[in-house]
Design goal:
heterodimer, A: 287 residues, alpha/beta, 60% helix, B: 140 residues, alpha+beta, 2 domains, five-stranded antiparallel sheet
């Protein structure tokens, strides 16, 4: 009986797809745990260094590092952190949408933008829309190292020091929880002071050892590196979480589709049998 | 009662210590510094060595750090270390091993080894061992 052969084939193919998505879901789930641990492990450091920088920005330092001086903003540098692979729901497109919106704002204000991009997805997207990408780092894997992105950060810092860009941002997805990832933009340079109300604003200074210049140079570079790196590990955790969720819903959808097709198939088979019986009965009656 | 100061020690990989202390002693670049409550704002680089947190006269906790930065605000001290760990967690066998390896590398005169790296390795393992030894003496 060759009833509904097409339907059977279709069901088989969806089942195969479901197997793949389910496997990817499980892989993402186990990777998510690891990437999350890594993200949480390096959070205290970046939080603390950000806090110190905030203190520093409210002080009145004897040596004004170039990273602390505000100037008129003509060009903006953006370090964009995206994922290397797709199949992670709207993770990258949500981030890109935010970047594009920001880009339009800047364009209206007459500011030029320069990009440094981490991750394959962002790289191909921004190259395809013709955005100026001056450096990129791709295929960093699930366990990125600070050394992998130091070169890229250096490019931006050099541009900043040379006065070619006047502000530096890092944009990435922020991990809120497994279900929610939020695209964020953070201004790294020039360092922004905390709200002006905090009491002793600009009335004190640190004691520096050995001297202000050496300490601040090191601290500020460290600060930028650590925040970009934090963005990278955070984006990684987001990627795995988003992939897990996307693959879970894909598996669920496949299941639903199979159920529906199975129903159609059973009905067709039933109809075929009924018809055959009717034919036999009809034939017997005729004899 | 002695006034206390809040101490945070974080390494690039974890928060190592957080709590109140009477005094914090750290290996600043230009000599060891002791920080008590209401110290003036202070910012310096740290050398590899030992950070001691005196919680009370009878409770002093030593930590090994591989260098980093120190920030002091009147009521908080923050140690940003590259690598940090409590002195009791130092792995003596591994430190000895890396010391030996570094010495072998330095003894190698064929010019194939990276001397700067070997020297750094040697200095690090020696610091670790020194901190550990001091910790044990304090215990005894």
């Amino acid at each position: 009986m060759a009833v509904g052969k097409e339907i059977r084939l279709k069901i088989a193919s969806i089942k195969n797809t479901q197997k793949i998505t389910r496997a990817m879901e499980m892989v993402a789930a186990s990777k998510m745990r690891k990437t999350q641990d890594r993200m949480l492990a390096s959070r205290p450091y970046s939080r603390k260094i950000a806090q110190i920088i905030k203190h520093l920005a409210t002080a009145n330092p004897e040596y004004k590092h170039v990273y602390m001086q505000r100037r008129e903003v003509k060009r903006v540098g953006v370090i964009l952190v995206s994922s290397d692979r797709g199949l992670c729901g709207g993770l990258n497109s949500n981030l890109f949408r935010m970047v594009i919106r920001q880009l339009r704002d800047w364009e209206r204000q007459g500011r030029e933008v320069m990009f440094c991009i981490v991750g394959q997805k962002g790289n191909s997207f921004f190259n395809s829309i013709g955005a100026p990408v001056s450096a990129s780092a791709v295929r960093l894997g699930d366990r990125p190292h600070l050394e992998d992105i130091i070169g890229l950060i250096k490019v931006m810092l050099t541009e900043y020091e040379a006065g070619k860009i006047d502000e530096l941002y890092v944009m990435h997805n922020e991990f809120v929880n497994t279900m929610t990832q939020r695209p964020t933009a953070l201004q790294l340079l020039p360092v922004k002071p905390e709200d002006m109300e905090s009491g002793n604003h600009g009335l004190w200074d640190y004691i520096y050892e050995p001297d202000a210049r050496e300490v601040l140079d090191q601290l500020l570079v460290r600060y930028v590196e650590s925040l970009v790196f934090q963005g990278l590990v955070e984006n990684n955790a987001c990627e795995q979480a988003a992939r897990m969720v996307a693959m879970k819903s894909a598996s669920d959808n496949a299941g639903k589709l199979i159920k529906e097709l199975q129903l159609v198939y059973n009905k067709a088979r039933q109809a075929a049998i009924t018809q055959e019986i009717a034919e036999i009965v009809g034939g017997a009656a005729a004899v | 009662m002695v006034m206390t100061i809040h101490v945070d020690i974080v390494s690039a990989e974890a928060a190592i210590y957080s709590g109140q202390a009477e005094l914090v002693v750290a290996p600043a670049e230009m000599g060891e510094v002791g920080i008590a409550a209401r110290h003036a704002p202070f910012l310096t680089r740290l050398k590899p060595g030992e950070v001691r947190v005196r919680v009370s006269a009878s409770d002093v906790q030593p930590f090994y750090i591989s260098g980093g930065m120190l920030e002091v605000q009147p009521h908080t001290v923050t140690v940003l270390a590259d690598v940090a760990m409590p002195a009791r967690d130092i792995n003596e066998a591994r430190a000895l091993e890396s010391k030996q390896k570094a010495e072998e590398m330095l003894a190698d005169k064929t010019g194939r080894v990276d001397y700067a790296k070997a020297q750094a390795m040697l200095a690090e393992s020696i610091t670790r061992l020194r901190v550990l030894e001091k910790y044990r003496k304090g215990k005894a």
